[in-house]
Automatic annotation (TrEMBL):
Residues 2-117 form the Gfo/Idh/MocA-like oxidoreductase N-terminal domain. It comes from Cohnella phaseoli. SUPFAM superfamilies: Glyceraldehyde-3-phosphate dehydrogenase-like, C-terminal domain, NAD(P)-binding Rossmann-fold domains. InterPro entries: Gfo/Idh/MocA-like_OxRdtase_N, Gfo/Idh/MocA_Oxidoreductases, GFO_IDH_MocA-like_dom, NAD(P)-bd_dom_sf. This is Putative dehydrogenase. Residues 134-234 form the GFO/IDH/MocA-like oxidoreductase domain. It comes from the Bacteria.
Length: 338
């Protein structure tokens, strides 16, 4: 499989490493910053260009969009219009309106299109789907996302925003919470409405970069789900006491299913853990598939999908649902400020 990559920033490293480690071909990387593109190409032994149009004119089995969030829409749209199969980093776009437009374009094109919610592809997450079916009628849920953001980082962010008020930076909810919202929708079904939401900001960061988000949402089946998401300098909390505290909990009439996800950039040290309390059996069951790189698993599944296999990768329609929920929670938070 030949993959061409748009974007040479931090997240592109994870994609390139996975492509190379799987023995796939990394053809060319494109980035408007020529120096960054050249360094990236030297590091990963591929060609480079500063012209995305040139990359899109070249044949490839897959084009990966790994540019900053604010540019996903235009770059992914160009890749689809050029006739490519596409992997777009999450979130698919930064607005529900743009996501609906892109999803419709993908539908009309018929081209394969995947969105990088790679936490759902881990075998432990797939086991959780079985557990979620065993809890009976879902009554409530919890989405928790807390990461150990150093205090010093907020001064750096505020200084950057002061110099560039129109910066395309996003906060914790978009960058970290979106993964867990995808898991919630993937395992628990659609959302009916957002009941309440509130966001907190550090000095100098409003409204670009949120520090903490809380929301209460109602699922289509009537269940209520609490969402809490934040960046905090708490280094010893979470399942592994490393400051990374991500949990999806679904509670039903017949059981309680939980999924603890991991520090996404450390697959060689950590693995997600899925658990269920089965009330009928009066037993607790746990599953841990081991140290599996989410990015590598994502590319394995993409190759399988391009060969016609049915795989649990996020589609444009599913990613659009996540972006719609994100917009709805932001809107509810704005109403709470009035």
């Amino acid at each position: 499989m030949k993959v061409n990559l748009i974007g040479a920033g931090n997240i592109a490293d994870y994609h390139a490493r996975s492509i190379k480690s799987l023995g796939y071909e990394l053809g060319v990387v494109a980035d408007g910053n020529e120096q960054a593109a050249r360094r990236f190409a030297e590091k990963y032994d591929c060609r480079w260009t500063a012209d995305t149009t040139l990359l899109l004119s070249e044949q490839a089995d897959l084009v990966t969009v790994a540019v900053p969030n604010a540019y996903h829409f235009e770059v992914a749209k160009a890749a689809v219009n050029a006739g490519h199969a596409v992997l777009c980093e999450k979130p698919m776009t930064r607005s529900a309106e743009n996501s609906r437009e892109l999803a419709e374009l993908v539908r009309k094109s018929g081209n394969p299109f995947f969105v990088g919610y790679m936490k759902r592809v881990h075998p432990t997450a797939r086991k959780f789907k079985e557990y979620a079916r065993r809890i009976g009628t879902m009554r409530s849920g919890l989405v928790r996302v807390f990461h150990p953001m150093p205090e010093a980082s907020w001064t750096i962010i505020a200084d950057q925003l002061a110099k560039s008020p129109k910066s395309t930076m996003d906060g914790v909810f978009v960058n970290s919470g979106s993964h867990m919202l995808d898991l919630l929708l993937h395992f628990a079904g659609p959302v009916r409405r957002v009941l309440a939401a509130r966001m907190q900001y550090r000095d100098g960061c409003y409204p670009n970069v949120d520090a903490m988000t809380h929301a209460l949402i109602e699922m289509e089946n009537g269940a209520t789900v609490t969402v809490e998401c934040g960046w905090l300098p708490l280094s010893g909390v979470g399942r592994r006491e490393n400051g990374w505290d991500e949990l999806l909990e679904l509670r039903g009439d017949a059981g309680l299913a939980t999924l603890h996800t991991t520090w996404w950039e450390r697959p060689q040290f950590e693995s997600p853990v899925a658990e269920i309390w089965d009330e009928a059996l009066r037993t607790r069951e746990s599953f841990n598939a081991g140290m599996i790189d989410n990015f590598e698993e994502e590319y394995r599944l993409i190759r399988a999908a391009l060969s016609g296999e049915d795989v649990p990768l996020a589609t444009a329609e599913e990613a659009c649902a996540v972006d719609t929920l994100i917009d709805d929670i932001f809107a509810a938070a704005r109403r709470s400020e009035i």
